[in-house]
Amino acid sequence: MNTIADPTPSTATGAQAPAPLAARPVPRRTGFARDTAAVFVRESRPLVRDPFSVLFSLVQPLVFLGLFGPLLVGAAGGDVAGTLQWFVPGILVMVALFGTASTGANLLFEMQTGSHERTLVAPLSRNALLVGRALKEVVPLMVQGTIVVLVAVPFGFSVNVPGLLLGLVVLAVFGIGFGALSYTLALGCRNRDWMFWMVHQTLLFPLMILSGMLLPLEDGPEWMRVAAAVNPLSYLVGAERALLAGDFGAPAVLGGAIAAVVTCAIGLVVGVRAMRRAR
Amino acid sequence: MTKHTQAGTGQMITARGSTKTFRSKGQTVEAVRAVDLSVAAGELVAFLGPNGAGKSTTLRMLTTLLPATSGEATVAGCDIRRDPAGVRRRIGYVGQGSSGGHTQRVRDELHAQGAFYGLGRRETRARAAELLDSLELGPFANRSVQSLSGGQKRRLDIALGLIHRPELLFLDEPSTGLDPHSRANLWEHIVELRRTTGTTIFLTTHYLDEADQLAERVMVMDHGRVIADDTAGALKESLAGDRITLGFAGRADASAAAARLGGELDPADPTRLVLTAADGERALPRHLRELAAAGLDVVTATHRPPTLDDVFLALTGRSLREESAGAGAAETPEPAAA
């Protein structure tokens, strides 16, 4: 068998007489940026190794696009292209919402198996453990968002490319924050999977419906419009609609950007605090 | 040869009065009670005790995973309270669970681990290749962690714990749940690691034979306290003698034999009498002759040298073997559940 480290000739046998210690370098200190990069790379690797996992989480948004979209066209009585122009930006927000909301489940699983514990005992900054994971959300989000748009184009959806890029940036900022909140939920639930999924399911559909991404809320009752006004997702949907249409100056763009930044800030602050308390 | 790190000459672990209390369902649970321990550089120490004795909690305090409620401890030259980051850089830790991310590839996890410990890219790759080879994981390097067998996963856990060549390695129940072959294989690797590198190893186990055969020193823990700390041989010698077990047709015979020879009836089977004797081989025929003269029929007779289980039994009045069998019924919660 080969030696495991620092081969030192030894006459010792068995466990009774250890070989003399060779000098061992102590790993050097690393900073937040380097630690975050290390965590980000680890989290992203499975995506690179198995890109189909990125496509898998596209099933739901594409189902909405393909099965809900035609109904919307029929109900509104408008043309397909016009309806898509209104509907596709909402689907992009849906991708960001559903993709990042369940990411905490990965952490939950790693907390249960023991690989999270391994990262806690490594000399990594706790902040980096959370931020590196949250930043990883950006990668699948960009790919998925682009695919949704490309799928819609043959049906008459017209894209303003700079608008799309800016729209993806806004979604990325939101996704980092929402992913961080999902990790926070996982850290809070520990070994209670059911609690994670219960909160997840309870929040996600109301957030989705009260954002106006599927159906306009203008005709809804007053209380729904009030709920939408405090839902950051409705600002995000408004911003995406303006950006993908190339309307960079619309007030909705600023509103969406602020909603994304606020979600991101809250998610990271809450997430980092939870990770610092993690055992 | 004399080029030591600071830990090469002195103590690798010292703890004084280490205590951990949890609040669980409105009650205060003392998981670890004022534990003192010291481990010298290069030692292989086994921490033995039933489930819930406080072994893992002690380990998690020493590895900075859990803050101690009170007490002082220095690990690999760093104070666990004042310099937890220093401790983390110097130690390797293999927890009870599986350390590799299930969707990750084996080699990728080793590379990630190298980055976590601040190793350069080239150094990480070289070290990962070395560990894959020495722990016989080479053929699985490109497989996902979830596709590995229990024994392979455990070897990966150890490889992950060794990526930065720590001077001190903590292993929390490294062989629990493995089949006998994988256990033996894992132990070969641990012994080989120590032989070639002199790494200090501190491990918990509830396998008596493991602690007995492989560790130079055994610390026995029960109800949050260290109740014995010596070599396995010395602990067994302290019991002064072999165990002789005599079986009888009924309880009355066994009691009558006890009245003559002393000893105690086996609580699990009161038709059996258990005796200790300095020299079991000679004592057994003597006892048989005496009982035959008294007209008592001995149905079965065995003698064996004392085991660590006898040590545990003598110290606590309970058998560790039975305690471990009833794993779920731990009286003190481990931190994972608290």
From TrEMBL, chain A:
Taxonomic path: Bacteria, Bacillati, Actinomycetota, Actinomycetes, Micrococcales
User: What is the recorded membrane topology of this protein?
Assistant: Multi-pass membrane protein
PANTHER family assigned to the protein according to its UniProt record, in alphabetical order: NODULATION PROTEIN J
Segment Disordered: which positions? 1-20
The alphabetical list of record keywords is:
Antibiotic resistance, Cell membrane, Membrane, Transmembrane, Transmembrane helix, Transport
Provide the ABC transmembrane type-2 domain boundaries: 52-278
Q: Name one GO biological process term.
A: response to antibiotic
Q: What is this protein called?
A: Transport permease protein
From TrEMBL, chain B:
Q: Which UniProt keywords apply?
A: Antibiotic resistance, ATP-binding, Nucleotide-binding, Transport
Listed GO MF terms: ATP binding; ATP hydrolysis activity
Tell me which Gene Ontology terms the entry assigns under biological process: response to antibiotic
Gene3D superfamilies from the UniProt entry = P-loop containing nucleotide triphosphate hydrolases
The listed locations are:
Cell membrane
Membrane topology type, per the record? Peripheral membrane protein
Q: One GO CC term of this entry?
A: plasma membrane
Q: What is its main location?
A: membrane
Looking at the record, the residues that make up the ABC transporter domain are 13-248
Name used for this protein in its record: ABC transporter
Q: What is the species of this protein?
A: Agromyces mediolanus (Corynebacterium mediolanum)
- Record lineage: Bacteria, Bacillati, Actinomycetota, Actinomycetes, Micrococcales
